[in-house]
Amino acid sequence: MNNAVELDLHAQELLSQYRALLPVYTQMADIIPQKLKAIFDEAGIIVAAVEHRVKTEESLTGKLKLKGGKYSTIHDITDLVGIRVITFYIDDVDKIASVLERLFDIDWENSIDKRKAHEIDSFGYLSLHYICSIPESSYKNEEHPEINKIRFEVQMRTVLQHAWANMNHDTGYKSGVEIPKVYKRNMSRLAGMLELVDDEFSRIRRELSDYRRRVQKLVASGNLSEVLLDGDSFKSYLSIGPFDRLTRRIASINQAEIQQVDMSAFLPLFKAMGFKTLGDIADLVKQYSEAAYQIACFQMGITDLDILSSSVAPQNLCMAYILKNGGGRAGIKLMLDALNGPSEGNEEMAAFLLEQTKDLPFMNQ
Protein backbone atom coordinates (compact mmCIF):
# COMPACT_ATOMS: atom_id res chain seq x y z
CA MET A 1 0.00 0.00 0.00
CA ASN A 2 3.07 2.29 0.10
CA ASN A 3 2.56 3.11 -3.56
CA ALA A 4 -0.86 4.55 -2.76
CA VAL A 5 0.76 7.13 -0.50
CA GLU A 6 2.53 8.54 -3.56
CA LEU A 7 -0.83 9.30 -5.22
CA ASP A 8 -2.36 12.76 -5.12
CA LEU A 9 -5.57 13.28 -3.18
CA HIS A 10 -7.82 12.85 -6.22
CA ALA A 11 -6.15 9.56 -7.18
CA GLN A 12 -6.42 8.36 -3.59
CA GLU A 13 -10.15 9.11 -3.67
CA LEU A 14 -10.49 7.07 -6.86
CA LEU A 15 -8.63 4.23 -5.19
CA SER A 16 -11.02 4.39 -2.22
CA GLN A 17 -13.97 4.19 -4.59
CA TYR A 18 -12.37 1.14 -6.22
CA ARG A 19 -11.98 -0.60 -2.85
CA ALA A 20 -15.62 0.05 -1.98
CA LEU A 21 -16.79 -1.39 -5.31
CA LEU A 22 -14.37 -4.31 -5.45
CA PRO A 23 -17.03 -6.87 -4.34
CA VAL A 24 -19.27 -5.66 -7.19
CA TYR A 25 -16.43 -5.91 -9.71
CA THR A 26 -15.70 -9.44 -8.53
CA GLN A 27 -19.36 -10.41 -8.82
CA MET A 28 -19.58 -8.99 -12.33
CA ALA A 29 -16.44 -10.84 -13.38
CA ASP A 30 -18.07 -14.10 -12.30
CA ILE A 31 -21.60 -13.54 -13.58
CA ILE A 32 -20.95 -11.99 -17.01
CA PRO A 33 -18.86 -14.90 -18.37
CA GLN A 34 -21.48 -17.39 -17.14
CA LYS A 35 -24.21 -15.42 -18.92
CA LEU A 36 -22.16 -15.21 -22.11
CA LYS A 37 -21.38 -18.94 -22.12
CA ALA A 38 -25.08 -19.76 -21.73
CA ILE A 39 -26.03 -17.51 -24.63
CA PHE A 40 -23.23 -18.88 -26.83
CA ASP A 41 -24.43 -22.42 -26.14
CA GLU A 42 -28.00 -21.45 -26.96
CA ALA A 43 -26.88 -19.81 -30.21
CA GLY A 44 -24.66 -22.74 -31.16
CA ILE A 45 -21.50 -20.64 -31.06
CA ILE A 46 -18.49 -22.69 -29.97
CA VAL A 47 -15.70 -20.69 -28.35
CA ALA A 48 -12.29 -21.75 -27.12
CA ALA A 49 -12.52 -19.87 -23.82
CA VAL A 50 -14.18 -17.04 -21.91
CA GLU A 51 -11.67 -15.48 -19.52
CA HIS A 52 -12.18 -12.78 -16.92
CA ARG A 53 -10.19 -10.67 -14.52
CA VAL A 54 -10.60 -7.74 -12.14
CA LYS A 55 -7.81 -5.17 -12.24
CA THR A 56 -5.69 -5.47 -9.11
CA GLU A 57 -5.15 -2.57 -6.77
CA GLU A 58 -1.46 -2.57 -7.64
CA SER A 59 -2.22 -2.30 -11.34
CA LEU A 60 -4.80 0.42 -10.78
CA THR A 61 -2.38 2.38 -8.60
CA GLY A 62 0.18 2.35 -11.39
CA LYS A 63 -2.44 3.59 -13.83
CA LEU A 64 -3.55 6.38 -11.51
CA LYS A 65 0.04 7.52 -11.08
CA LEU A 66 0.36 8.01 -14.81
CA LYS A 67 -3.01 9.49 -15.71
CA GLY A 68 -5.28 9.68 -12.67
CA GLY A 69 -6.17 13.27 -13.52
CA LYS A 70 -8.15 12.28 -16.60
CA TYR A 71 -10.77 10.42 -14.53
CA SER A 72 -13.48 12.29 -12.63
CA THR A 73 -14.86 9.21 -10.86
CA ILE A 74 -13.96 5.54 -10.73
CA HIS A 75 -16.76 4.90 -13.26
CA ASP A 76 -14.66 6.67 -15.92
CA ILE A 77 -12.16 3.80 -15.85
CA THR A 78 -13.57 1.24 -18.24
CA ASP A 79 -11.22 -1.73 -17.84
CA LEU A 80 -11.51 -2.53 -14.14
CA VAL A 81 -13.51 -5.59 -15.15
CA GLY A 82 -12.15 -7.33 -18.20
CA ILE A 83 -13.66 -10.19 -20.18
CA ARG A 84 -11.90 -11.95 -23.04
CA VAL A 85 -13.71 -14.21 -25.50
CA ILE A 86 -11.38 -16.42 -27.53
CA THR A 87 -12.83 -17.93 -30.70
CA PHE A 88 -11.59 -20.62 -33.04
CA TYR A 89 -12.44 -18.72 -36.21
CA ILE A 90 -12.17 -15.10 -37.34
CA ASP A 91 -15.78 -15.13 -38.53
CA ASP A 92 -16.99 -15.93 -35.04
CA VAL A 93 -15.61 -12.68 -33.63
CA ASP A 94 -18.40 -10.79 -35.40
CA LYS A 95 -20.96 -13.30 -34.13
CA ILE A 96 -19.74 -12.70 -30.57
CA ALA A 97 -19.93 -8.95 -31.16
CA SER A 98 -23.53 -9.31 -32.32
CA VAL A 99 -24.39 -11.16 -29.10
CA LEU A 100 -22.82 -8.40 -27.01
CA GLU A 101 -24.70 -5.71 -28.90
CA ARG A 102 -28.01 -7.40 -28.10
CA LEU A 103 -27.12 -8.09 -24.48
CA PHE A 104 -25.35 -4.92 -23.33
CA ASP A 105 -25.21 -1.19 -23.93
CA ILE A 106 -22.10 -0.49 -26.01
CA ASP A 107 -20.00 2.62 -25.48
CA TRP A 108 -19.14 3.07 -29.15
CA GLU A 109 -16.99 6.12 -28.55
CA ASN A 110 -14.55 4.16 -26.42
CA SER A 111 -14.81 0.81 -28.19
CA ILE A 112 -12.18 0.03 -30.79
CA ASP A 113 -11.76 -2.42 -33.65
CA LYS A 114 -8.04 -3.11 -33.75
CA ARG A 115 -8.58 -5.47 -36.66
CA LYS A 116 -8.42 -2.41 -38.89
CA ALA A 117 -4.73 -1.96 -38.06
CA HIS A 118 -2.43 -2.40 -41.04
CA GLU A 119 0.98 -2.69 -39.39
CA ILE A 120 2.84 -5.80 -40.52
CA ASP A 121 3.49 -6.93 -36.94
CA SER A 122 0.01 -6.20 -35.60
CA PHE A 123 -1.48 -9.69 -35.96
CA GLY A 124 -1.61 -10.56 -32.26
CA TYR A 125 -3.29 -7.25 -31.45
CA LEU A 126 -6.16 -7.45 -33.92
CA SER A 127 -8.77 -7.84 -31.18
CA LEU A 128 -12.19 -6.27 -31.26
CA HIS A 129 -12.67 -4.35 -28.00
CA TYR A 130 -16.12 -3.36 -26.76
CA ILE A 131 -16.74 -1.17 -23.74
CA CYS A 132 -20.02 -2.38 -22.29
CA SER A 133 -22.46 -1.76 -19.49
CA ILE A 134 -25.43 -3.74 -18.23
CA PRO A 135 -28.75 -2.07 -19.09
CA GLU A 136 -31.32 -1.76 -16.32
CA SER A 137 -33.85 -3.46 -18.56
CA SER A 138 -31.67 -6.56 -18.51
CA TYR A 139 -30.52 -6.61 -14.88
CA LYS A 140 -31.11 -4.39 -11.89
CA ASN A 141 -29.88 -4.74 -8.32
CA GLU A 142 -31.45 -2.45 -5.74
CA GLU A 143 -28.58 -3.09 -3.30
CA HIS A 144 -25.97 -2.21 -5.92
CA PRO A 145 -27.52 0.30 -8.37
CA GLU A 146 -23.99 1.21 -9.45
CA ILE A 147 -23.79 -2.09 -11.33
CA ASN A 148 -25.52 -0.38 -14.26
CA LYS A 149 -22.99 2.46 -14.24
CA ILE A 150 -19.89 0.29 -14.20
CA ARG A 151 -18.45 -0.15 -17.66
CA PHE A 152 -16.35 -3.18 -18.48
CA GLU A 153 -14.20 -4.23 -21.40
CA VAL A 154 -14.77 -7.28 -23.59
CA GLN A 155 -11.95 -8.33 -25.90
CA MET A 156 -12.70 -10.70 -28.77
CA ARG A 157 -9.92 -12.49 -30.63
CA THR A 158 -9.03 -15.84 -32.19
CA VAL A 159 -6.95 -18.59 -30.60
CA LEU A 160 -4.02 -17.82 -32.88
CA GLN A 161 -4.21 -14.08 -32.16
CA HIS A 162 -4.32 -14.84 -28.45
CA ALA A 163 -1.35 -17.19 -28.64
CA TRP A 164 0.63 -14.65 -30.65
CA ALA A 165 -0.09 -11.84 -28.20
CA ASN A 166 1.06 -14.03 -25.31
CA MET A 167 4.23 -15.03 -27.15
CA ASN A 168 5.00 -11.42 -27.93
CA HIS A 169 4.49 -10.48 -24.32
CA ASP A 170 6.72 -13.34 -23.18
CA THR A 171 9.55 -12.36 -25.54
CA GLY A 172 9.30 -8.69 -24.63
CA TYR A 173 8.75 -7.85 -28.28
CA LYS A 174 6.32 -5.04 -27.42
CA SER A 175 7.91 -4.09 -24.12
CA GLY A 176 9.79 -1.12 -25.50
CA VAL A 177 13.15 -2.86 -25.17
CA GLU A 178 15.12 -2.61 -28.38
CA ILE A 179 15.77 -5.98 -30.01
CA PRO A 180 17.89 -6.76 -33.10
CA LYS A 181 16.21 -6.19 -36.46
CA VAL A 182 16.73 -9.81 -37.50
CA TYR A 183 14.45 -10.93 -34.68
CA LYS A 184 11.87 -8.28 -35.53
CA ARG A 185 11.91 -9.45 -39.13
CA ASN A 186 11.48 -13.10 -38.18
CA MET A 187 8.65 -12.25 -35.80
CA SER A 188 6.93 -10.22 -38.52
CA ARG A 189 7.26 -13.12 -40.97
CA LEU A 190 5.74 -15.46 -38.43
CA ALA A 191 2.91 -13.02 -37.75
CA GLY A 192 2.09 -12.98 -41.45
CA MET A 193 2.05 -16.78 -41.57
CA LEU A 194 -0.27 -17.02 -38.57
CA GLU A 195 -2.61 -14.42 -40.03
CA LEU A 196 -2.75 -16.45 -43.24
CA VAL A 197 -3.51 -19.61 -41.24
CA ASP A 198 -6.30 -17.80 -39.38
CA ASP A 199 -7.82 -16.68 -42.69
CA GLU A 200 -7.46 -20.14 -44.22
CA PHE A 201 -9.20 -21.88 -41.33
CA SER A 202 -12.19 -19.58 -41.75
CA ARG A 203 -12.17 -19.98 -45.54
CA ILE A 204 -12.09 -23.79 -45.28
CA ARG A 205 -14.96 -23.76 -42.80
CA ARG A 206 -17.04 -21.55 -45.10
CA GLU A 207 -16.34 -23.81 -48.08
CA LEU A 208 -17.23 -26.92 -46.07
CA SER A 209 -20.50 -25.30 -45.02
CA ASP A 210 -21.24 -24.47 -48.67
CA TYR A 211 -20.38 -28.04 -49.65
CA ARG A 212 -22.73 -29.49 -47.05
CA ARG A 213 -25.55 -27.26 -48.27
CA ARG A 214 -24.93 -28.33 -51.87
CA VAL A 215 -24.93 -31.99 -50.84
CA GLN A 216 -28.19 -31.58 -48.96
CA LYS A 217 -29.81 -29.97 -52.00
CA LEU A 218 -28.55 -32.71 -54.34
CA VAL A 219 -29.76 -35.44 -51.97
CA ALA A 220 -33.14 -33.77 -51.58
CA SER A 221 -33.49 -33.43 -55.36
CA GLY A 222 -32.50 -37.05 -55.97
CA ASN A 223 -29.32 -36.28 -57.94
CA LEU A 224 -27.42 -38.91 -56.00
CA SER A 225 -24.99 -39.91 -58.74
CA GLU A 226 -23.45 -36.43 -58.51
CA VAL A 227 -22.68 -36.76 -54.80
CA LEU A 228 -19.40 -38.34 -53.76
CA LEU A 229 -19.64 -40.80 -50.88
CA ASP A 230 -18.16 -39.31 -47.70
CA GLY A 231 -19.11 -38.68 -44.09
CA ASP A 232 -21.18 -35.57 -44.76
CA SER A 233 -22.96 -36.90 -47.82
CA PHE A 234 -23.73 -40.25 -46.17
CA LYS A 235 -25.22 -38.47 -43.16
CA SER A 236 -27.44 -36.40 -45.46
CA TYR A 237 -28.41 -39.55 -47.35
CA LEU A 238 -29.41 -41.37 -44.16
CA SER A 239 -31.65 -38.45 -43.24
CA ILE A 240 -34.00 -39.32 -46.12
CA GLY A 241 -34.38 -42.90 -44.87
CA PRO A 242 -33.14 -44.83 -47.94
CA PHE A 243 -33.43 -48.21 -46.19
CA ASP A 244 -36.71 -47.60 -44.37
CA ARG A 245 -39.01 -49.25 -46.89
CA LEU A 246 -36.97 -52.46 -46.95
CA THR A 247 -36.63 -52.44 -43.17
CA ARG A 248 -40.41 -52.21 -42.71
CA ARG A 249 -40.92 -55.01 -45.22
CA ILE A 250 -38.49 -57.26 -43.38
CA ALA A 251 -40.02 -56.38 -39.99
CA SER A 252 -43.46 -57.37 -41.27
CA ILE A 253 -42.30 -60.99 -41.64
CA ASN A 254 -42.57 -61.49 -37.86
CA GLN A 255 -44.45 -58.27 -37.11
CA ALA A 256 -41.26 -57.18 -35.33
CA GLU A 257 -40.64 -53.85 -33.68
CA ILE A 258 -37.90 -51.79 -35.35
CA GLN A 259 -35.12 -50.46 -33.12
CA GLN A 260 -33.25 -47.52 -34.64
CA VAL A 261 -29.45 -47.77 -34.47
CA ASP A 262 -26.47 -45.75 -35.70
CA MET A 263 -25.69 -46.64 -39.31
CA SER A 264 -22.35 -44.81 -39.63
CA ALA A 265 -20.46 -48.14 -39.56
CA PHE A 266 -21.78 -48.87 -43.05
CA LEU A 267 -19.85 -45.97 -44.61
CA PRO A 268 -16.41 -47.68 -44.53
CA LEU A 269 -18.08 -50.93 -45.61
CA PHE A 270 -19.67 -49.31 -48.65
CA LYS A 271 -16.32 -47.74 -49.53
CA ALA A 272 -14.59 -51.10 -49.16
CA MET A 273 -17.17 -52.54 -51.55
CA GLY A 274 -16.06 -49.99 -54.14
CA PHE A 275 -18.98 -47.58 -53.97
CA LYS A 276 -17.99 -44.05 -54.98
CA THR A 277 -21.22 -42.04 -54.92
CA LEU A 278 -24.58 -42.04 -53.20
CA GLY A 279 -25.96 -43.14 -56.54
CA ASP A 280 -24.08 -46.42 -56.12
CA ILE A 281 -25.89 -47.05 -52.83
CA ALA A 282 -29.22 -46.07 -54.38
CA ASP A 283 -28.56 -48.63 -57.15
CA LEU A 284 -27.76 -51.23 -54.47
CA VAL A 285 -31.14 -50.62 -52.84
CA LYS A 286 -32.93 -50.76 -56.18
CA GLN A 287 -31.24 -53.89 -57.52
CA TYR A 288 -30.77 -55.99 -54.37
CA SER A 289 -33.79 -55.26 -52.16
CA GLU A 290 -35.57 -58.44 -53.26
CA ALA A 291 -32.49 -60.55 -52.57
CA ALA A 292 -32.04 -58.86 -49.18
CA TYR A 293 -35.67 -59.67 -48.39
CA GLN A 294 -35.15 -63.33 -49.32
CA ILE A 295 -32.19 -63.50 -46.93
CA ALA A 296 -34.33 -61.92 -44.21
CA CYS A 297 -37.11 -64.47 -44.76
CA PHE A 298 -34.57 -67.24 -44.23
CA GLN A 299 -33.15 -65.55 -41.12
CA MET A 300 -36.54 -64.79 -39.59
CA GLY A 301 -37.81 -68.26 -40.38
CA ILE A 302 -35.32 -69.89 -38.00
CA THR A 303 -35.87 -67.39 -35.17
CA ASP A 304 -38.74 -65.81 -33.28
CA LEU A 305 -37.30 -62.28 -33.29
CA ASP A 306 -39.84 -59.62 -32.39
CA ILE A 307 -37.37 -56.71 -32.14
CA LEU A 308 -35.37 -55.91 -35.25
CA SER A 309 -32.41 -53.56 -35.67
CA SER A 310 -32.78 -50.94 -38.42
CA SER A 311 -29.35 -52.07 -39.66
CA VAL A 312 -30.86 -55.33 -40.98
CA ALA A 313 -31.75 -53.77 -44.35
CA PRO A 314 -28.31 -52.37 -45.32
CA GLN A 315 -26.58 -55.45 -43.88
CA ASN A 316 -28.71 -57.82 -45.95
CA LEU A 317 -28.24 -55.61 -49.02
CA CYS A 318 -24.48 -55.84 -48.60
CA MET A 319 -24.68 -59.59 -48.04
CA ALA A 320 -26.78 -60.07 -51.17
CA TYR A 321 -24.36 -57.96 -53.20
CA ILE A 322 -21.33 -59.89 -51.93
CA LEU A 323 -22.89 -63.29 -52.54
CA LYS A 324 -24.28 -62.43 -55.95
CA ASN A 325 -20.94 -61.02 -57.11
CA GLY A 326 -18.82 -63.95 -55.99
CA GLY A 327 -17.46 -62.54 -52.75
CA GLY A 328 -18.17 -65.82 -51.01
CA ARG A 329 -17.26 -66.61 -47.43
CA ALA A 330 -14.29 -64.23 -47.38
CA GLY A 331 -16.50 -61.34 -48.47
CA ILE A 332 -19.13 -62.10 -45.84
CA LYS A 333 -16.44 -62.32 -43.15
CA LEU A 334 -15.01 -58.95 -44.19
CA MET A 335 -18.50 -57.48 -43.92
CA LEU A 336 -19.02 -58.93 -40.43
CA ASP A 337 -15.57 -57.73 -39.36
CA ALA A 338 -16.36 -54.22 -40.60
CA LEU A 339 -19.72 -54.04 -38.84
CA ASN A 340 -19.07 -55.98 -35.64
CA GLY A 341 -15.31 -55.93 -35.22
CA PRO A 342 -12.93 -58.77 -36.10
CA SER A 343 -13.52 -62.06 -34.27
CA GLU A 344 -13.13 -65.80 -34.81
CA GLY A 345 -16.90 -66.14 -34.64
CA ASN A 346 -17.26 -64.11 -37.83
CA GLU A 347 -15.49 -66.86 -39.79
CA GLU A 348 -17.96 -69.45 -38.56
CA MET A 349 -20.94 -67.15 -39.13
CA ALA A 350 -19.78 -66.40 -42.67
CA ALA A 351 -19.52 -70.12 -43.45
CA PHE A 352 -22.99 -70.69 -41.96
CA LEU A 353 -24.60 -67.87 -43.95
CA LEU A 354 -22.94 -68.97 -47.16
CA GLU A 355 -24.21 -72.51 -46.72
CA GLN A 356 -27.74 -71.50 -45.73
CA THR A 357 -28.24 -68.93 -48.52
CA LYS A 358 -26.80 -70.87 -51.45
CA ASP A 359 -30.20 -72.22 -52.46
CA LEU A 360 -32.14 -68.94 -52.14
CA PRO A 361 -33.88 -67.93 -55.39
CA PHE A 362 -31.70 -64.85 -56.03
CA MET A 363 -28.54 -67.02 -56.07
CA ASN A 364 -29.86 -68.96 -59.03
CA GLN A 365 -31.03 -66.03 -61.12
Overview of the molecule:
- 56% of the residues lie in helices and 10% in strands.
- It folds into two domains: 176 residues, 2-Layer Sandwich (Beta Polymerase, domain 2); 124 residues, no CATH class.
- Strands 1, 2, 3, 4, 5 and 6 form a six-stranded mixed beta sheet that branches. Strands 7-8 form a two-stranded parallel ribbon.
- By secondary structure, it is an alpha/beta fold.
Structural class: alpha/beta
CATH architecture of the largest domain: 2-Layer Sandwich
Helix content range of the residues, please? 55-70%
**Secondary-structure element string:** HHEHEHEEEEHHHHEHHEHHH
pLDDT < 50 stretches:
none
Give the CATH class of the largest domain: Alpha Beta
Whole-number mean pLDDT: 87
Write down how many β-strands occur, each being a DSSP E stretch of 2 or more residues: 8
Distance between the termini: 95 Å
CATH superfamily of the largest domain: Beta Polymerase, domain 2
Number of helical elements:
13
Radius of gyration in whole Å, from Cα? 32 Å
Features:
alpha/beta; 56% helix; two-stranded parallel ribbon; 365 residues; elongated; Beta Polymerase, domain 2
Outline:
The chain has 365 residues and is α/β, with parallel strands linked by helices. It has 13 helices and eight strands.
Task: Describe the secondary-structure layout.
Layout: H1 2-5, H2 9-43, E1 47-54, H3 57-67, E2 81-87, H4 90-103, E3 105-106, E4 112-113, E5 128-133, E6 152-158, H5 159-171, H6 181-221, H7 231-238, H8 244-251, E7 257-259, H9 266-272, H10 278-301, E8 307-309, H11 312-324, H12 328-340, H13 344-357
Parallel strand pairs: 2-6, 7-8
Antiparallel strand pairs: 1-2, 3-5, 4-5, 5-6
Helix pairs in contact: 2-3, 6-7, 10-11, 11-12, 12-13
